[in-house]
C-alpha cells in the first residue's frame, strides 16, 4: 500500500467517527487553560467573512471540488455559502434519507487554525463533532451525477464560540458504482482552510 496523504487520513477518520458515533468534547470544552479550568466561553457576534476557498479531493479527471464562498454568523445561528463539483466518472450520493451513514455537512470548531492541530486530533480519533447544518437552499440533490455541480447555502441555529477556528465539513458522500483506486467509496471532507470567529 502506498503512502496515504493527510487529507485521505482525515476523510477516513472522520468517516469512522461518524459511523461509530464517538462522543468528542465540544470546542467550548476544549477551550481551557493549562490548569484545567474552563475559560469563559463567549458567543461569536454577527459577522460575515468572504472566504473564496477552493479545495480538491482526487486527481485531475477523477476529482471532487469543494468551495466555500462565505460564512456568516447570525444572532441566532450561522450560514455558509458552499459548492460541490463532481469531476469524476461516478455519481455521489449526497442526500439519501434512507442511507445508513449520517450526513455531516456543517462546521467543526477548533482551538487553533494550525494544520498540526487538525492532524493530531485526526490521528488520535478526537476530531470535534460537526455542528450539523439543518437547512439547505436549494436542497442537496440525492445524487450528484458526473459533471454536475451544486451550489447553495447551508445553515443551522445555535451559537458558535468566539476565538475558535471554523472549518467546513462536507459529507458523507457515498460513491455510486465501482470507485477507481485513487478515490474512496465514502468521503467526509474537512477543509484545510480555517476561519477565526470574532466576538
Features:
12 strands; seven-stranded antiparallel sheet; mainly beta; Immunoglobulin-like
Overview of the molecule:
The chain is mainly beta and 199 residues long. It has a single domain (6-18, 46-196), classed as Immunoglobulin-like (Sandwich). It is 14% helix and 40% strand. β1 (47-59) and β2 form a beta hairpin.
Overall strand count: 12
The H-and-E topology, N to C, reads as HHEEEEEHEEEEEEE
- Biggest β-sheet: count, sense, barrel? 7 strands, antiparallel
CATH architecture: Sandwich
**Which CATH C-level class is it?**
Mainly Beta
Helix content: 10-25%
Number of helices: 3
- Return residue spans where pLDDT drops below 50 for at least 5 consecutive residues: 1-39
- Assign an overall shape: globular
How large a portion of the residues is in β-strands, by DSSP E? 35-45%
Query: Whole-number radius of gyration?
Result: 17 Å
| CATH fold annotation | Immunoglobulin-like
End-to-end Cα distance, whole Å, is: 46 Å
Number of domains: 1
Structural class, by secondary structure, is mainly beta
Average pLDDT taken over every residue: 81
